[in-house]
Amino acid sequence: MNELYVGRVVFGKTKAVKKGGRVGLRTSTDKSTWQVSVHEALRIVPDELWSIVRARKDATRTLYLRADTGRYLGKPEASSRSTEYLLNGIVRCGGCGGALSAMRKAKQGTKRDGTVREARGYYYCLRRLNGKPCENRRGVPIADLEESVREALRFALHRDQEATADLLASKIAQARVEQEQRIAGWKVEHADQGEQIEKLEAEIGRLVGALAAGLSSADVVATINAKRAQVEDLKRQEAPVMPKWLTFDRAAFLEQLGEVPITPGQPRMGRQALRRLGVKSITVVPTADGWTIEGGLDFEPILRRVISGGSDAPEVGETRDTAGPDMAPQSS
């Protein structure tokens, strides 16, 4: 936060250094060496408001997913700051495909006889609650379902990380072959593109010369415009290229994979971890004696951070096969 808002001017945050024969470069200094000067005339925010904002920012900072090393891994959804449930908006009903939503049926407290009443909560099918067709009338206990998802993720991530990397590497290798075929096919299809452009530009030159000689007519002008449009269209037909994300850094991928924390009791962090692992939907399938969960991982979010050369978006019409292993089915 800018301390100038409360009239504090800080000097010495950076200093000039010489590096590699270059002078005038700036580097950060230790906070203990900073010099602070107070000028009340510059204050625009009272101390009370400053403290409230600082506390809010500090609290918000704790909601961001980080690895054990402190490295930033993700940020919370705007709506997740107020949610206490891991799977709202992610789990689907295996009976009708509708969304499941967490609901509390009783709060934790003390009964009249002095015993503790445990809080009870379940994920219910919203379609059925809203009167739409669905035979899934049973709720799924919140704690049981969330722990089953965490256990399935742990199994999928840690059962054999090398095998997971092998699976992804093979898919990327196949994608490279397919992209090379598209590039080669485009070159064959557009082999005479340069000649077509030169021919059209020569025709345009002759028509422009005719206009300069006084042979002006609406047909000549229309023909020139049409040929110019053809030239522009040909120039826009750029050759496909090999996208940067198809360079697989195995070591960096495994490092990123191992950093994703799967811990209970932190639903906001958990939702970020699910997004990080590409878990977009989990289906809860009712069974005769309980339920099972089904889902899979998509490693594109991790690949975007480890690709060589940056995090370029997919080209138009391009699809990525970055699916990882399925989550191990869990039942209860």
Q: What can you see in these coordinates?
A:
This protein is of the alpha+beta class and 332 residues long. Helices cover 39% and strands 21% of the residues. The strands form six sheets. Strands 7, 13, 14, 15 and 16 form a five-stranded mixed sheet that branches. A three-stranded antiparallel sheet has the order 8-11-12. It has a two-stranded antiparallel ribbon with strand order 1-4. The two termini are 49 Å apart. The model is unreliable at 307-321 (pLDDT under 50).
In short:
With 332 residues, the chain is α+β, with helices and mostly antiparallel strands. Strands 7, 13, 14, 15 and 16 form a 5-stranded mixed beta sheet that branches. Strands 8-11-12 form a 3-stranded antiparallel beta sheet. Helix 5 runs antiparallel to helix 6.
Present the secondary structure layout.
Layout: E1 8-11, E2 14-19, E3 22-28, E4 35-38, H1 47-61, E5 65-66, E6 72-74, E7 91-93, E8 100-106, E9 109-110, E10 116-117, E11 120-125, H2 126-129, E12 140-141, H3 142-158, H4 161-189, H5 193-212, H6 218-236, H7 250-259, H8 267-276, E13 282-287, E14 290-298, H9 300-306, E15 323-326, E16 330-331
Parallel strand pairs: 7-13
Antiparallel strand pairs: 1-4, 2-3, 5-6, 8-11, 9-10, 11-12, 13-14, 14-15, 14-16
Helix pairs in contact: 4-7, 5-6, 7-9
Q: Count up the domains.
A: 3
Helix content: 25-40%
Supply the number of helical segments: 9
Give the percentage of residues in beta strands. Answer: 15-25%
Identify low-pLDDT runs.
307-321
Order of helices and strands: EEEEHEEEEEEEHEHHHHHHEEHEE
Based on secondary structure, the structural category is: alpha+beta
